[in-house]
Amino acid sequence: MVLSALLWRGTPFQLLEAIRQRPSVQLYGSPALLAELANVLTRPSPAKRLAMVGRTPRGVLADYVAAIELVEPVEVPRVVPEDPDDDHVIAAGVTAHADLIVSGDDDLLSLATFSLAGC
């Protein structure tokens, strides 16, 4: 979802823009999530899109860092059985005491009502 919000102008982008207009809403990320985004930005499809819009991975990452508060989870609980990388999303949410996690990822969506309060 982050990639879509940063590189395309669809629903994820519109959601990001709406959040930016609400100072009471805070977005969070973590070093692990930044590293994953950096990796994804070098893949063929995002790299092609970056070239089309005249952006660089470094510039997109800088925009993302400017939009989030960085948290550093001490522990990464094993929560998402199908994709251990998604555990970092949960860990960032727990560390940030987030009210909710917004994602288009099927493995995270399958958790449906996972309670961050229990972690």
Describe the fold and architecture.
With 119 residues, the protein is mainly α. It has one domain (2-118): Rossmann fold (3-Layer(aba) Sandwich), CATH 3.40.50. It is 52% helix and 5% strand. The chain contains 7 helices and 2 strands, in the order H-H-E-H-H-H-E-H-H. The protein has a two-stranded parallel ribbon with strand order 1-2. Helix 3 (31-41) packs antiparallel against helix 5 (57-67). The two termini are 24 Å apart. The mean pLDDT is 86.
Topology:
Blueprint (H helix, E strand, L loop, with lengths): L1 H6 L3 H10 L6 E3 L1 H11 L2 H10 L3 H11 E3 L16 H10 L9 H4 L10
Parallel strand pairs: 1-2
Gist?
With 119 residues, the chain is mainly α. The protein is built from 7 helices and 2 strands.
Q: Any guess at the CATH architecture? A: 3-Layer(aba) Sandwich
Mean pLDDT: 86
Q: With helices defined by DSSP (H or I, 4 residues minimum), what is the helix count?
A: 7
Main beta sheet, described? Answer: 2 strands, parallel
What is the name of the CATH topology? Rossmann fold
Q: In what order do the strands lie side by side in the largest sheet? A: 1-2
Helix content: 40-55%
Distance between the termini: 24 Å
The level 1 CATH classification is: Alpha Beta
* H/E topology pattern: HHEHHHEHH
Q: What fraction of the residues are assigned to beta strands by DSSP? A: 5-15%
Low-confidence stretches: none
Number of domains: 1
**Global geometry:** globular
Please state the structural category: mainly alpha
The rounded Rg comes to 14 Å
